[in-house]
């Protein structure tokens, strides 16, 4: 038996169709909260309004200004809004961007956060916050940003377009994959990661065939929960570092970038992570995990190459230099030539191979 350390996160999770309006008021009541500010992005305002209405007198206002990667000025305005209404807590409704804003509010004010996720990003399960100042994103870990309660409402995700559902779903699988070979992996987290990858990859074809399949939407959120919990419990490797650089430095879209890069990062790491590959193989029912993931995402209409996402060929070498110049845990040694091979293959959308 390998040694391990496991730390349970103090968090309540409710999964219920309609829960964004039926469960959120109860969750706020359990926490004794009476003046909640609801935060969301501009496109999520209608849904967040329904949550605000359900809270009734316990809603102190609606702030619909969340944006990708939490720009500092957006965070400043949100904290001002919290103070202006005398809020005693915050409910973030939306994807990783809205939840990211809720986390920075919690970090700066110490107020409790409730999360109502509408994508599969998994941010709601992690104590990691991010803030973008002068074009640079800083991240940190702080237990105070972990939501006190998370309400997963499959009905809320019926409007998530199939394209974004698929890429966001593969983003979740990426968390599970890297958790399985993380240096701080542990048996319970590995079980969650394997089951999360199984639930998500099983749900995606069904919801792509019928985006209104509530059962498939529920299974995808269940998968997102488990994959997000695995992300929150472990330290990510090469794949997340590649996506961080491609998103942060070259402005590539978050979930789509994860979807394109994952098969190549896994093909690179596979020879050094046989147990993780075996777990993912069981989850996806395949003996070629990288190709199975690439085939699944492509079949469901996701982009297949970094070129399609707008990366310039000349940026490939710049990104490879940035990713290989940093220190982070990874099962296989990260060399500049290795990263360059991974990025070249992902740029072209080639069949993934461990030889890159
Ligand atoms: P997002 O929150 O930016 O949402 C993407 C788009 O989908 C937005 O335009 C949004 O309005 C729309 N959308 C969301 N839910 C919808 C729904 N149900 N119906 C219709 N449209 C909907 O994207 P994301 O991929 O969820 O999150 C990405 C952000 O989260 C990034 O900034 C990333 O760094 C961060 N993130 C952080 C962590 C963490 O642990 N801190 C984990 C994962 C992601």
Automatic annotation (TrEMBL):
Residue stretches making up the Fe-containing alcohol dehydrogenase-like C-terminal domain: 166-347
GO molecular function, one term: alcohol dehydrogenase (NAD+) activity
Organism, scientific name: Streptomyces resistomycificus
UniProt KW keywords: NAD, Oxidoreductase
All copies of domain Alcohol dehydrogenase iron-type/glycerol dehydrogenase GldA, residue ranges: 19-154
InterPro entries: ADH_Fe/GldA, ADH_Fe_C, Alcohol_dehydrogenase_Fe, MAR
Domain of life assignment: Bacteria
PANTHER family per UniProt: ALCOHOL DEHYDROGENASE (PTHR11496), ALCOHOL DEHYDROGENASE 4 (PTHR11496:SF102)
Protein name: Maleylacetate reductase
